[in-house]
Structure formats: structure tokens, C-alpha cells
Amino acid sequence: MKALILVDIQNDFLPGGALAVKHGDRVVPVANEWMEKYRLVIATQDWHPANHQSFASQHPGKKPGQRIMLDEVEQVLWPDHCVQGTKGAQFAPGLNLDGIQHVIQKGTDPRFDSYSGFLDNDRQHATGLEALLREHNVTVVHIMGLATDYCVKATAIDSAQLGFETAVILEGIRGVELGLGDCAMAMEQMMAAGVEMIS
Fold it and tell me: Which of 46, 82, 106, 158 is catalytic?
């Protein structure tokens, strides 16, 4: 059984959004094309409370892109994004929502970010994605979405480490690239974890 996971294809990650990924909108038609090939399609959705501690606005004097420690976990500070109930948190216009069977919301705890679709960054709190995949007897997981160097990478590595045969769909990902080479490094890290790259 194969499943397709669409990672965070949301307005705030598209051009013009609060945390825009360059050419992020280009993954939408790719997602629509690929989801027709799967019986099970799951979308992850960043779903932050307004006081989320990953937001630079919650730390006076700090700016997006800076790093702090939150409960012994390193945290990149971001602009406010994907706040629960806002337009920015909604899925991208044009994304075929009828083709998605389940939505997994993540980053809901104000204390912890959640790059991975499986676990919060503190590695203590599961989102329910693994349980959902096991319930459907999924053994193969294909992943695409935003962004390559954060949520796609974390989701793919966790998937592989949990024992799923995992692949990333190259035409369906775009990265933040806060630092030059971040996406290339992310690809290397995913492949080192046993993730396949497919096109």
C-alpha cells in the first residue's frame, strides 16, 4: 500500500505569503497530477496558535532567521505564519482538496515547532500520522511539498526511520534556502537516511 503525503502546501508558503518559498506555487499542479495515482493522500498543515514560540514576534529584539534555544531544542525564528483560522494557513488555491483523504495538523503546541509531519521538534509528541499510515497498512510513502530544507526533509527522514519505504518527488518540492546550499544539504541528509529521490 502506497500513500502520498503533501507537506504544507499553504498560502503563507506561496509567493506573497508571510513565509514565502520561491516558486512554491509551482508544486500545486504537480500535487494535483500525482495525487490521482494514490488511493491514500494525506496533507500536513502547519496550524500555529498566534502566540507560537517559533515566531520572532514573541521574542522582543529578535528577528526572523535568528536562532534561539526553546526547552533545549534549537529553534529558527520565523515571521508569524500559518496562524490557526487565518487565510495564510489555508491550503493553496487550486490544490485539489477533493483528492485528499486526511489532514494532519502540526505545530499546534505553542512551545514546540513541528517540521516533521510525524513528530514535534522536541521528539516527544506524535501528530497521529504514523498511526494513520499503520491503520491503512501503508508500507511505501511518497512525499512532496514545502519546504525542501525544513518540513519535507524532516518528514522524509522520520518516515524512513520509522521503517516506511520513502521517496521524495523532486518536481514537487521547493526550498526556503535561508543559507546558501541548505537545499543541497537537505537532499544529502535525506538520501543518507535512505530516502529515494524520484521524478
Answer: 106
Residue 48 DSSP symbol: B
pTM over 0.70: yes
Residue located via cell numbers 495564510 = 88
- Residue 126: count of CB within 10 angstroms of its CB: 12
Torsion of CA 157, 119, 172, 45, to 10 degrees: 180
Q: Is 183 a catalytic residue?
A: no
Residue 63 designated active-site: no
Summarize pLDDT for 46-98 with one digit per residue, the tens: 999 999 999 999 999 999 999 999 888 899 999 999 999 999 999 999 999 99
Whether 80 is catalytic: no
Catalytic pick among 151, 153, 158, 183: 151
CA distances from 195 to 71, 129, 186 (A): 29, 18, 11
